[in-house]
Amino acid sequence: MAEVSMQQVKELRDRTQAGLNDCRSAMVEASGDMEKAVEIILKKGLAKSAKRAGAIATEGVVTALVAPDGKAGVLVEVNIQTDFAARNAEFLDFASKTAAAALAAKTGADLGAEKYPGSNATVEETRQALVGKLGENITVRRWERLTVDGAGKVHAYVHLGGKVGVILAARLGNQAAASKPAFEKFVDDSAMQVAAMAPLYVSASEVPADAKEKQAGIFEAQLVEEGKPEKARPKIIEGKVAKWLKEVCLLEQASVIESEKTVEQLRAELSKELGAEVTLARFVRFERGEGIDKPTTPDFASEVAKMAGG
Known about the structure:
Layout: H1 6-16, H2 20-29, H3 34-45, H4 49-53, E1 59-66, E2 72-80, H5 83-86, H6 89-104, H7 123-134, E3 138-147, E4 152-159, E5 164-172, H8 181-197, H9 209-226, H10 233-248, H11 263-274, E6 278-287, H12 300-307
Helix pairs in contact: 1-2, 1-3, 2-3, 6-7, 8-11, 9-10
């Protein structure tokens, strides 16, 4: 029987997320060969697909794709369990081709049922096959499409290797201005702004009344807690809501490129320069794993201690 160190077992566990005993057995079976041990784990994992299907996938990538004519774009989040697997070339290819399937699909379609590019299988069938091959759960978590009718374009921006992705629809008074470098820069800067500052709305006019009321209620509760006089609260709340709107509305935010100006001021200046009205119509922002509760699992040391009866 080959001698297997705990460091080797830990490395195999980090690479595959398999159980400690499984990793130790695989290393012994592989006579200490790490790559063979990984292959053993993956092969044995084919019989455990049901267990993997329930595993929470929080790593992965956000992928964006825009049609050649710039009139449509999609944003897709594909998750996998570990950061190691998220860098796998086959996983990244799957995410990229799933975005291509989304671009070809109708808005609101069941993406899993769509044809997977370059094959006769569906996206879901391809996903299941890749789960078996990589030994980790994979989920096509969400996708969304933006389109522009008439003059304008959809622009995509992906930040930090797929951690944050944005698609932004911008309209123009005439299509000729769409190819102007100044317009291209403004749209790219605005998409970057959405990625960095995470606004919730394009403009203050889009903010629902109930959202404002809810925020005002939060501010009022805070003022009560601080002991502010009741008569003084309405004016303070009004000011706090106005400040909040500047934080959550794209056009109201200070530009990350020219901090002395708002995005709205830059938009107005560009419209004047181009002689055509520029409108930021809508955006979609995905941040990888947002809203997913990540499970707390025992670390490697505590698992070893438990096995040793500690």
